[in-house]
Amino acid sequence: MTRLRERKNNWEAVLRSLYGAVERNRLEVSGSVLRAELGLPDEDLSAAFAYLADEGLIIVDWTSHRTPASVSLTHEGICLMEGLEEEQEEMAEKEAEPGD
């Protein structure tokens, strides 16, 4: 069983990949493309998809073999990623400010 830190890293990797696709005007990504891009074992990737779907952050179109055919961010998932992006930009701006 993967440890919590590894699972959180997997969830974040999936969300970042999907958010990147949204930024490129791709609303959904095939499960096989995500698998190849992220390099995660099928079991870990499916577990991440299931968790994020249960949290309402992504929508997964599962095949009859319980593998992901396509995956997309929900509105809530996009909002979460936009909030994280804004936080990172604010932190970068603060670090770039000259010291007092």
Describe this structure in words.
- This protein is an alpha+beta fold and 100 residues long.
- It is 63% helix and 13% strand.
- The protein contains 4 helices and 3 strands; from the N terminus they run αβααββα.
- The chain has helices spanning 4-23, 31-38, 42-54, 75-96, and strands at residues 29-30, 58-62, 68-73.
- It has a 3-stranded antiparallel β-sheet.
- Strand 2 and strand 3 form a beta hairpin.
- Helix 1 packs across helix 3 (42-54).
- 19% of the residues are buried.
Characteristics of this structure?
3-stranded antiparallel beta sheet; 100 residues; 4 helices; alpha+beta
Strand arrangement, largest sheet?
Answer: 1-3-2
Q: Gyration radius, to the nearest Å?
A: 15 Å
How many helices does DSSP assign? Answer: 4
Low-confidence stretches: none
CA-CA gap between termini = 48 Å
Overview in brief:
The protein has helices spanning 4-23, 31-38, 42-54, 75-96, and strands at residues 29-30, 58-62, 68-73.
Q: Any chance you could write out the topology, listing elements then pairs?
A:
Layout: H1 4-23, E1 29-30, H2 31-38, H3 42-54, E2 58-62, E3 68-73, H4 75-96
Antiparallel strand pairs: 1-3, 2-3
